Amino acid sequence: MPPALAPPVVVPNSGNNIVVNPCQRGNPVLECIRNVGKEFGDTPADYQVGRTTGILFLSLRYHRLHPEYILTRIEKLGHSYDRRFLLILCDIEQHRDPIRELTKSCLINNITIIIAFSNDEAGHYLTMYKQYDSKPPDMIKERVDKDYNAILRSALTSIPKVNKTDVETLRSTFGSFANMSKATSDQFRNLPGFGQVKVRNIENAFKKPFRNDA
Amino acid sequence: MSTLLPFHKAIIEEIHDPATSDLLILARGLGLRRIICTLMKIYDSNKNLVLLVNASPEEESAIGEELGITGCRRPGLRVLGYETPSKERQELYKQGGLISVTSRILVVDMLQGDIPVHLITGLIILHAERITPLVAEAFIVRLFREKNKIGFIKAFTDQPEHITSGMSPLKNVMKELQLRRVHLYPRFHEYINKTLERRRADVVELSQPLSDSMSDIHSAIIQCMTTTLSELKRSNANLDLDDLNVENAYFRSFDAIVRYQLASVWHKVGPKTKQLINDLNVLRQLLFYLLSYDALSFHAYLETIIESNTLSASGAARVHQSPWLLTDAASMMFDTAQRRCFKTIVPPEEKAVISPPVIDLDDDEEAWAALDELDRTNSTSDKGKGREKPNPRPAWLPKTMQPILEDQPKWDLLSEVLLEIESETIRFQSNLKPGQMPGNDTVLIMTSSTRSCDLIRDFLDDMDPDAEPGRKGVKMMQKRLRGYLGWRGRLGSQDPIGPRTGNPANKSGSSGSANGKGKEREKGRDEVVSEALRKKDREKEEKAAGRRRMRGGAPGGGSSRNGNAGDAGAGSNADGTQGNEVIYVDKIDDVMTLWSNDSSDPTATLTSLNNEIDLELLTREDFETAYGILPAEQTIVIRAYSDDTDDRMLAEIQPRFVIMFEPCVEFIRRIEVYRSSYAGLALRVYHMVYANSCEEHRYLAAIRKEKEAFERLVKERGVCISTSNLYPILTHTDAIQTMLLTLEERKEPGSATAGDSAVKTINTRLAGGRRELSKEPSKIIIDMREFRSTLPSLLHASGVYIIPATLTVGDYILTPDICVERKSLADLVQSFNSGRLYNQCEVMSVHYKHPVLLIEFEEDKAFSLNFISEMKSYVKPTSKYPKKPANRATTFGASISDPTNDPGSSSGPTIQAKLVLLTLSFPRLRVIWSSSPYATSDIFTDLKKNQPEPDQIKAIVTGADWDPDVGKGVNAVAEELLRSLPGIGSGVGAGGSVAGAVMRKCKSVKELCELSEEEVKALIGVGPGRVLYEFLHKGE
């Protein structure tokens, strides 16, 4: 399909509104979109949350009855939008096969699937897509500025079986991270709450080489 | 070495035939390892290639040694792990013999063709109870049977309790192992019964009541558990939680029960319920720690729990504490636990000072000097002229503290029993000539953990025999109290204000100057405390080292006995052995104990020596008495229960007196076996149990459970055999169908009877399986690390050709364009938090056209993201400002980066929010939602249809230009730990990641910690280097 045929993108009156396709009228999910404005407008997607972001909506229960519906919608979507999502409401028990088929067709059509498990969650997703549309991804990037105890806790709990009480025990017994690395397995074993498996995991993490010498 | 009893021989007779495949289920403690080792010895030959699968490292080394002892040495059992390079592995496989391999490695080798599968003589599989369709061992069996129809599979287990869940557990295990012969040998098996009943040991059952304060704590814990349980039931009223009662909560499997009960609604339960379940776990542990820890350690552990519960990760006060911490029972428990250790009193002269029980700053110098003094005089005087007791009040003790230091009740019992054994031994010796009877007079004390071993050893070292009952361990407890005080100081430094030495001024400003001063004062004190302590420790170490050196020559005799020096072994000895004097075990005032790292190694009773006598003064006789091997009657060996290694230990030590400090079913059986192996052995066993405690309870229930498990298995085997004719010997195609069959069964649970499933097998063969096979096999490249998960096994079962490789980018490469990163739900949360997922997606987007994130849910858990309760509270605050979206976004940003915001208190961004942001940031990223590994396998095959196959070499080098080690084994845990350190991160920058640079320079995390600040800076840059170095060495 030539890209020239892509339908025009509707520019909402206020930049803060989600543009909702009129065919979504009566969808209970609309009620669950809170904290952002909504307006109806003729868009190729069901929900247009940004200039380049369009979301299609599909309830699996509806899909079961009309399996061809979503394909026509995807076809109509054509090449519009850079960021294309299919929001699936998983409201049936036998979801495995439909999800598998949809996964395949969405991969071909460059659409990302998001699955919600309730109307509330679906509405929440739409709200967030609107809110985060132009937000930098700092929140999910690595954070460097954290305080000592938090880093220590997350570092040590990355070792299997080590919990926050153990972190506390380790810190109060050995003082520093470097001292922990020097401690013998006997020292570990004598700490309260440290069993064989936990000690072995800790030893593996601290003392075993990262790579073998193949 | 270890003798085979008649029933052992009968079992081996049954199963040794290499033409058959067998599953042996034996009751625990009856010497399964003996049987395995004997079998392996039979199979040992260059012409055979026998693989030992699913053995833990401890078992590998123990089996290896046992084989060595029985004369199966060259080359004996060779152990392969991820450290062994693949070239070496191939060589070893070619040589044949007995080889033990880690399952994950074996799978990879089988897939890569590094091991000649058709030449394998047979597999010996341990822990058969863990076999399910999803584990690597089942995968191994499938790969094995695919190319090798004649090799044998011998599977073993001594844990029948595990094969009881589900409809027909035994059948499932047999199906996965593809074998049909099962041998059940419970303890009540007639033959075993006959062998063991013939000679019975003389058992003295000692039931010790708990002390008053202990039973107070015990009932308080039970009360807390009841509260927590009823809370749990109240918050999940719609669930059937009848099975959850305090009785069940004694067992380790309790967590599993709760999880199982809640699995269907796990996504709906809030963080509160999860916390409650966690609390139950903690309380259950407390019950056991109450019995096995000394009063001080127990109190210290309680304090740690309180500490970690009141402060959140970021140091702010936690909002949601565990409910049981707030109950009356809990506060009574804490009080009583403290009262067992010490009382806080108002010192007579300084009434004004109110008590945190720490040492005062003012007199510390003197106090510590005095303490050193005291300690020295104490230790010398003990050696020389006897005891200088009771020392009234050590100077190091804070004035506000009145030590109580209650003994554990069993300690008294222990000292009485030891006395009794003394007199018994003497009676024996006067009646008999030594050597007439098998066994020797070594006293063996068995405990539940190495920790309690240490405790008992310390107790016996410092025991004061003349003290009234209940006060015998005072000296040891005082030593421990001192250690505790130092520790207490360091625990306090968790305080968010105290330890930030970098900028104390600006931090303490916020909390008010008075407070700040107080903290600093406290800190100063802590420093003094710890410095003095350190000094003491150094001194002690020196002393110990010196002593050891002096005696270095002697213990050689002991350790050479089994050629493995430096093992666990505690010899303690009594002085006053000359003549026929009464030997007081209690006089073991100067004991050398070498307590080495690995308790699972076999014991060598390192004989230890008595007093320090100058070498020059020694005559030859003196030398014998002072440095020779101790006569057995003077040694006490303290060991923790372990696995079948205990059998060999018993055979080596040959004790006539065994004290079981804690009850243990297996060990009783071991003693039975040991007793039956030696004719005429007069064995006496003391069996100590706390009356009406969870210990007793658990012991009885364990016996019952095992019996029931065996009864079920016997029944099921009866049914199995009658239907087994329906199953032909499985071939590869059948194996696939078996897998399909399990899938079918999953879809329609309950409907599949044996007859039905046989019909289905035929149907599926015609319909599904054949088509897949006739096609040219499609390939998927899978990262080595992924072989821990079940997906590769399932993919293989669905007919995909699997190529294992070490990948830098992605986990699964489906086509040249599609690269998948698999995340289980827990992984997803964790890698979102660490920011690792962002980096992974970034790298995938750079290298592949279709980067895919696979979110995989667990089979039996609900298919949903489980953050609903948090989601609601997240939406709420925003509704106040509906008109200011821009502002709102920044508030979110602030609330996220603000460290004081506690994620546990619900307002952090949800997983959904992060997912939204991720998909918005990477428009090309696709998400696969899979309800189970089975579904994933379907989706993968679907995606691969009519697509080109991926290229292995290209996949490996992708994104790995910087890493010279590409394609080698990795230590994932260590790497994860490294990446979570500040300044390292998981990013892949130009010229390689920081982590990569570190890994090239240092071999392990430990080596990184040993670098100097300059070296660290040179390694990863000045800024991050400083941060990292400060992090590593903060608090030293």
TrEMBL record, chain B:
Residues 505-516, 561-576 have a biased composition (Low complexity). Coiled coil: none annotated. It holds the Pfam family ERCC4. Its main location: nucleus. The keyword Hydrolase applies. One of its GO terms (molecular function) is single-stranded DNA binding. Transmembrane segments: none annotated. Belongs to the XPF family. This is ERCC4 domain-containing protein. It comes from Leucocoprinus leucothites.
